[in-house]
Write a structure and sequence with these properties.
Layout (H helix, E strand, L loop, with lengths): L3 E2 L7 H20 L7 H22 L9 H18 E4 L2 E6 L4 E2 L1 H16 L8 H19 L4 H17 L4 H21 L2 H11 L10 H12 L26 H34 L3 H25 L17 H19 L5 E2 L1
Helix pairs in contact: 1-2, 1-10, 2-12, 3-4, 3-5, 4-5, 4-6, 4-11, 4-12, 5-6, 6-11, 9-10, 10-11, 11-12
Length: 363
């Protein structure tokens, strides 16, 4: 009599590390708000993590291959949500990125990053030849949300989406001529991209090269962030004892510069451990890409790994003065419901791919 069993290969690093990052996020938020006594940010973050964890397991339990059947609809949902920002968006810090529902805010561009990974993985895993025309259609459809997000303006998310598109294209084993053509096109468009940047975005890039040139203006954020990181020393000042973040010398300490708040509290040791945690998680995602039994799973994992790598690398880099300030959140650490929930769903899908990387076994 034949028997069968389904592989239940759970990757525990994709459970333990997100949990550790979530804990560090909540601890840092409590720390930077301890003087003001306003713990709402940390409490909201806990709620976001509970919702994210629930959706993580929902998508881990689902067969990820089913997403291929709905990729067009998911893409259209993302586009419609970005269009809604134009008419109903709320402007914060000079950018219109959020839709305010009263009890919470929703950032469609964060959702679009995840949907773009699903769209690209589905598009290139349908068994069709990657002709120039087919690649052109993918790039055209990908360019629509990129342009919409860039006009919000949101340089950080635009760059992240661009990295996702490039990673998916590379994972899809495109012909060499098409890849070379794409690289040449990007190089040609770089001057146009620079011209289209807002004045404050250009200032951020310039201040990256020399933040001391305008320490009270465009270079203020970077200078204060580096002070916070350096003041942590080897083991940190401890949670609730930080000065840069608690006394609000550090701008947007709960989002863009939360790593500086963590570094000030935990020092070099804590900072190093967080970098190691991100490195292990990203490494595991790329490993799962290599063991996936289908092209959709492989491409999705590469897109997901590229997204988390780019965001964490740029965010930590801008906190220590190695990258320009672009407003990119640190995955699972920076405050923000949409970012946390969509990242959790992405990791849940990666977990689903890992669980199902072995086919049914019959005996």
């Amino acid at each position: 009599m034949k028997r069968f069993k389904i592989s239940t290969n759970i990757d525990w690093t994709l459970i333990a590390i997100p949990l550790l990052l979530a804990t560090s996020s909540v601890a840092t938020l409590f720390s930077i708000t301890s003087i003001s006594g306003n713990s709402s940010l940390a409490i909201d973050q806990i709620v976001y993590f509970i919702i994210g964890a629930s959706l993580y397991w929902v998508f881990a339990a689902l067969n990820y291959r089913e997403l291929k059947n709905y990729y067009i609809y998911l893409y259209l949902i993302g586009i419609i949500s970005l269009v809604a920002v134009i008419f109903f968006g709320q402007s914060v810090y000079g950018s219109t990125r959020w839709i305010n529902f009263g009890f919470t805010r929703f950032q469609p561009s964060e959702l679009m990053k995840m949907l773009l990974i699903i769209f690209g993985a589905s598009y290139f895993s349908r068994g069709k030849e990657n002709t120039f025309y087919r690649v052109f259609i993918f790039l055209l459809l990908s360019a629509i949300p990129l342009v919409m997000v860039a006009r919000q303006p949101d340089l950080g998310t635009t760059l992240t989406m661009l990295v996702i598109v490039v990673a998916i294209a590379l994972a899809s084993k495109l012909p060499r001529k098409i890849l070379i053509g794409g690289v040449v096109t990007i190089i040609i468009l770089l001057p146009i991209a620079w011209i289209s940047l807002k004045p404050y975005q250009k200032e951020r890039v310039v201040s990256f090269a020399n933040p001391a040139a305008d320490p009270l203006g465009s270079g203020y954020n970077v200078s204060q962030s580096k002070i916070a990181v350096g003041s942590g020393g080897l083991t940190g000042k401890g949670f609730g004892e930080t000065t840069q973040s608690q006394l609000q010398f550090l701008p947007v300490a709960h989002i863009d510069f939360i790593f500086s708040g963590w570094a000030e509290a935990t020092g070099f040791v804590g900072s190093f451990l967080m970098v190691v945690a991100f490195s292990i998680m990203i490494y595991r995602i790329f490993i799962i890409a290599t063991v996936s039994q289908d092209e959709f799973g492989t491409i999705f994992c590469i897109g997901a790994g590229a997204m988390i790598f780019f965001q964490s690398f740029v965010n930590i880099g801008m906190n220590i003065g190695l990258m320009p300030v672009t407003g990119i959140p640190l995955p699972l650490v920076s405050y923000g419901g949409t970012s946390i929930i969509t990242t959790a769903i992405v990791l849940g899908i990666v977990q689903s791919i890992n669980i199902r990387h072995k086919t049914l076994k019959f005996e």
